[in-house]
């Protein structure tokens, strides 16, 4: 069983100008775009986190790692990347974490509307048993007793522990939820991508 987690795989790296890779402006590493965060400079010269990667302007790419963002803020590395003095919000790290979490919840909500989200102990357990799921979200604050109790030890899909019971509950329209499962679909893939970035940014370690 794979619990999401912090996983880097830089094998088979592509060139930096390939759409699938970007160069981190702090470490100068060429990394998969799926593991990167994009920042742009607003018209008033402030650093803005572009969670959807769609804002206009020259993108500054950072490997999804809170410690690297801290370096970029403390050592004014953003100035070099932006080719000039810019305003760096003192709570930029919190903005990044909040934006990623909100994007993840929004995408989970869209998955629910599209019929790609399963929640409730029995429903999730059944979907897992029938091998219908491509990912499971498990509340980060789940009790020890509740953790992974719907899962088999041989499951190969990722398990994301990046949202709490209340946040998963909001997605499902309930007070609290411990597990939700994703069915295959484009929206599910997007949701997994954001969840993976949250895990990377927070440096979550693999369990199990």
Key terms:
208 residues, alpha+beta, Hypothetical Cytosolic Protein, Chain: A, 60s Ribosomal Protein L30, Chain: A, 2 domains, five-stranded mixed β-sheet, three-stranded antiparallel β-sheet, 10 strands, disordered N terminus
Q: Can I get a quick summary?
A:
This protein has helices at 66-74, 77-82, 92-113, 121-129, 165-172, 186-202, and strands at residues 2-4, 21-23, 30-32, 36-41, 47-49, 60-63, 117-119, 135-138, 158-160, 179-182. It is α+β, with helices and mostly antiparallel strands and 208 residues long. It has two domains: 7-91, 2-Layer Sandwich (Hypothetical Cytosolic Protein, Chain: A), CATH 3.30.1230.10; 95-202, Ribosomal protein L30/S12 (60s Ribosomal Protein L30, Chain: A, 2-Layer Sandwich).
Annotate the secondary structure layout:
Elements: E1 2-4, E2 21-23, E3 30-32, E4 36-41, E5 47-49, E6 60-63, H1 66-74, H2 77-82, H3 92-113, E7 117-119, H4 121-129, E8 135-138, E9 158-160, H5 165-172, E10 179-182, H6 186-202
Parallel strand pairs: 1-9, 8-9
Antiparallel strand pairs: 2-3, 4-5, 4-6, 7-10, 8-10
Helix pairs in contact: 3-5, 3-6
What does this structure look like?
This protein is an alpha+beta fold. It has 2 domains: 7-91, Hypothetical Cytosolic Protein, Chain: A (2-Layer Sandwich); 95-202, 60s Ribosomal Protein L30, Chain: A. Helix content is 34%, strand content 17%. The chain is built from 6 helices and 10 strands; from the N terminus they run ββββββαααβαββαβα. It has helices spanning 66-74, 77-82, 92-113, 121-129, 165-172, 186-202, and strands at residues 2-4, 21-23, 30-32, 36-41, 47-49, 60-63, 117-119, 135-138, 158-160, 179-182. The strands form 3 sheets. It has a 5-stranded mixed sheet with strand order 1-9-8-10-7, sandwiched between helices. A 3-stranded antiparallel sheet has the order 5-4-6. Strands 2-3 form a two-stranded antiparallel sheet. β2 and β3 form a beta hairpin. α3 packs parallel to α5 (165-172) and α3 packs antiparallel against α6. The longest helix has 22 residues, at 92-113.
């Amino acid at each position: 069983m794979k619990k999401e987690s912090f996983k880097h795989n830089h094998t088979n790296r592509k060139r930096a100008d390939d759409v699938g890779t970007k160069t981190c402006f702090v470490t100068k590493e060429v990394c998969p775009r799926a593991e990167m965060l994009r920042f742009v400079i607003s018209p008033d010269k402030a650093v803005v986190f572009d969670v959807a990667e769609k804002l206009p302007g020259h993108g500054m790419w950072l490997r999804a790692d809170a410690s690297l963002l801290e370096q970029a803020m403390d050592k004014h590395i953003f100035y070099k990347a932006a080719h000039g003095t810019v305003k760096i919000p003192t709570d930029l790290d919190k903005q990044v974490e909040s934006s990623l979490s909100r994007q993840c919840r929004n995408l989970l909500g869209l998955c629910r509307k599209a019929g790609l989200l399963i929640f409730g102990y029995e429903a999730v357990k059944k979907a897992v048993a029938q091998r219908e799921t491509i990912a499971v979200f498990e509340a980060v604050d789940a009790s020890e007793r509740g953790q992974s109790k719907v899962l088999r030890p041989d499951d190969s899909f990722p398990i994301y522990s990046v949202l709490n019971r209340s946040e998963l509950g909001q997605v499902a329209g309930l007070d609290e939820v411990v597990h939700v499962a994703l069915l295959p679909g484009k929206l599910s893939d997007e949701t997994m991508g954001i969840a993976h970035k949250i895990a990377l940014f927070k440096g979550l370690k693999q369990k199990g």
